Predict the structure.
Amino acid sequence: MAVSNEQIKNKLVEKFGDQVFDFSEPYGMLTFEAPKALNLKVLQFLYDDETLKFRFLTDLQAVHYPNDAGRELAVVYHLHNLQDNVRIRFKVFTDIKQPDVYTATQLFATANWMERETYDFFGVNFVGHPDLRRILNVDEMDYFPLRKEYPLEDQSRVDKDDEMFGRGGNF
Amino acid sequence: MSDHILLPEGSIEKQTTTLNLGPTHPATHGVFQNVLEMDGERILSAEPTVGYIHRAFEKLAERRPLYQVTPITDRLNYCSSPINNMGWHMTCEKLLGVQTPKRVDYLRVIIMELARIADHLICNSIVGVDSGAFSGFLYVMQYRELIYEIYEEICGSRLTTNIGRIGGFERNFTPVAWQKLERFLREYPKVLKEFEDLFTRNRIFMERTIGAGPITAERALNYGFTGPNLRAAGVDYDVRVHTPYASYEDFDFTVPVGSTGDCYDRFLVRNQEMWQSLSIIEQALRKIQNMKGAEAEVYHADVPEYYLPKKEDVYTSMEALIWHFKIIMGEIEMPKGEVYHSVEGGNGELGFYLISDGGRTPYRLHFRRPCFIYYQAYPEIIKGAMLSDAIITMSSLNLIAGELDA
């Protein structure tokens, strides 16, 4: 019997109390947040629990929210329970000044390159990663290009206006 | 070795050879570099380097309205671009809450399954080439050509197709497209049968592929394998079945699985999937032919904010001209939200994670590229194998540099 979003939520709250919060279901996928210190505990619990069985890491990436002081970087995990065919999304937020998040490589071998990619583009420092190097960009690069402060186009150009893209040219 | 050759006093004998395979080696079919540490013909360790054709798609997408992202998705897995295009359009539809008519879904299924056939066709015939059989590759190529002609008839381009629109297709299938499709369905089974006869029980091919590059189901899952490579290891995970999109639930097909996850099983799974795709196309064709009245003509959903108005209207009516301009320039605000949508691409689960902040371009777009995720298992798979097995394993994993590097 498939496990419902409500059951997953109850199980998590039962185990972690108010440490897991901000539950929502955008487009049917249960999404929640936890403190970054707990990310491995939550992933391990989701992996081990006999009814949850989230043992497939579909995707791992980061998002940069420059205006959200103290929680600028979000690391997003997409997990899949292949037996019951349920997906969930799990987020941890971190300060951009000290972007340390524990690595999930011990649990999922696939997290290795996903975390390297996330490090490469956002500078998230995955603590305990066996080989945290740049992967797609050149090794000599000294910035993290997917952060919002790096504009796609040369900012000195005046013939193009960010207003066109609905965001008022803040970044 | 050291028994026969006397080395000068004080010299250190290196027991292994370092071999640079790639970045541009004809046998790797793409830009892949592997630094192999070899003991004779055996591989002790491999160090893959990726990123040679990285084009910053995710960054580019943050400055592009939805339609301008479609050509980017073409260039992920360029052997089956229509699947990528439609996966992206379906992601947008999910965000915008667009319901597509059944006929649109079936037309999409036809194109996506054709793309799957083209993808598997290339992969399997390249496995043949790497094991020394060139003729299969040349023989099936004319049917990939026919598939490309069908694309061309529908959207005007062949390799990087940019096919379809949000809500459906840019135009209805022409009679020529239907004729070509029927010709394909008539002629291709014979060719596929012959292709299988060339390889499946071929002694040389079996010797080369059985036991080469195996992976267990457990390791494959831990490494995030999806698609034919995971199914060859014995796990029947298929996005089309688990999370049906484009009305795949209306079709009757089986998910072929292997058991050992070696090159031979991957080859068999892909071949079997081509038969299943043919059957799906036939079913879709029959469903479309059985449609009557207005339903039988519809080829797009009613989404005036995103679907370009007819050219005649653009030239004659103000309203249509305004919408045309707004759509082309991408001046439409998207709803806020975050959505993950995945489709079964040629190589596995191709996912799109789209975050919209209510602007005109994605706030963040991430592509889950199956190639990138399973290529990290390559050093583990080829450890202890011969160099020639490593080559054939690479092509049977169907690594596409464009998808890997995004």
